[in-house]
Every structure is written in C-alpha cells, then in structure tokens.
Amino acid sequence: MPVQTEAPVVIEPARPARACVIWLHGLGADGHDFEPLVPQLRLPDALGVRFVLPHAPVRPVTVNGGQSMRAWYDIASPDLGLAPDLDGIARSAEYLRSLVAAQGDLGIPPERIVLAGFSQGGVVALHAALHMRARPAGVLALSTYLAAAEGDATGLRVFMGHGSADPVVPIEQARDARERLLALGAEVEWHVYPMPHSVHPDEVADIARWLRARL
C-alpha cells in the first residue's frame, strides 16, 4: 500500500455525521481540489454528510517524463488502455478501503458511504467498490474509465459523468466502462456534458440530486 504521509481533508457537516463521501482527486491535484465543490452541492443538513478528501502520494509518473507529482498510480502512455498499472491501482484501492473501515469505526457503515473520484481517482473508486465485501452506497465516477473489468458489481449504483470533448479520457473509454459495469451487474446512471476534462455546473446539480437519493 502506498505510504500516506498526510491526513485527508475532512469537512464535517453542521449536524452529527450520518453518512460520508470519500472523494479522490485526479492526477497532479490534491485533496483540496474538490473542497470548493462541497458547499455548491447544497446537501441538506439533515443528511449529516461528512466529506473525506484524501491526498495521493507523490510519485514519478512515466507519461509525464518521470516527473514526480501526486498520483494514485503510474500511467505509462497517453493510451490509458495500454499496460495499466494494476498493482498501483490495487494498492490505492486498498488504501481507500482502509478509509471506509475508518469511517466504520466512527459509526458510519459502508452502505452509508459513497466512493467518489475524478479521472485517476474514479478508476481507484471503481476498483475498490468492485472488490468490497460490503456494498457501498454508490460510486461517483467522473471523467474516468475502468482499468480492469473484474469483481462483483451486482446492485452497485454508479453515477458516471463525462465530457463530450474530453482530450484526456476519450468518451469512448468511458462508454466502454459503462458497458463493462453493466455486464458485471451495476446500475449505471450515465450523463454527458459539453465540457473537456473538467466538471460542468449541470453535472454538479446532477451529483447533488444523486447523492440525496443515495444518502
């Protein structure tokens, strides 16, 4: 498992926490990346949603000339389907599952926890969910793809949002991930937005609605 030298950013709700969203950032960002989005979701205080925003470890990334940056796993080529770093993804997914277990120690069971991730973070969130014994409340998979179509997705609820002009993760890869998740038994809510590799205001509204339904 990657050595984690920093504690996640934690945003506590106004009322006692009854649910949790663990949100993983993308390549080169950190746990603060999606911090400004939390108030934009305008989730009801009554839901008591805690947000946990972890930081990926700093490591060399092959596709960026070996430059060290925050990354959940290595990327060897701009073709994301070519030789994926399955070991690195598995280690980061193990870390994510440890965060789920930590929330359990605080009284929030997996069925009240949503795993969320953007780009690299979405790959890890999906991988972790597919290998969890206890089903999470759902997965927010944003501008992302599926590195390995294995595991159990029976009844897993997934929100997928992707940009129609994404130059980093081609929308064809996201569509392929959707089809593979459906084949594994997941329930997938699919959205396409007029954007590149980013987050769209309409997507934020859709995420908020989906989270209210899940939590």
Summarize the SSE layout with pairings:
Blueprint: E1 9-11, E2 19-24, H1 37-41, E3 49-53, E4 58-61, E5 67-70, H2 86-105, E6 113-118, H3 120-130, E7 138-142, E8 157-163, H4 171-183, E9 187-193, H5 201-214
Parallel strand pairs: 2-3, 2-6, 6-7, 7-8, 8-9
Antiparallel strand pairs: 1-3, 4-5
Could you give me the name of the CATH homologous superfamily? Alpha/Beta hydrolase fold, catalytic domain
| CATH level 3 topology | Rossmann fold
SS field, number of helical segments: 5
The number of distinct structural domains comes to 1
* Overall CATH class: Alpha Beta
Radius of gyration: 16 Å
Architecture overview:
The protein is an alpha/beta fold. It has a single domain, classed as Rossmann fold (3-Layer(aba) Sandwich). The chain contains five helices and nine strands; from the N terminus they run E-E-H-E-E-E-H-E-H-E-E-H-E-H. It has helices spanning 37-41, 86-105, 120-130, 171-183, 201-214; strands spanning 9-11, 19-24, 49-53, 58-61, 67-70, 113-118, 138-142, 157-163, 187-193. The strands form two sheets. It has a seven-stranded mixed β-sheet, with helices on both faces. It has a two-stranded antiparallel ribbon with strand order 4-5. The longest helix has 20 residues, at 86-105. The two termini are 29 Å apart.
Keywords:
seven-stranded mixed beta sheet, two-stranded antiparallel sheet, alpha/beta, Rossmann fold, single chain, 5 helices, 215 residues, 29% helix
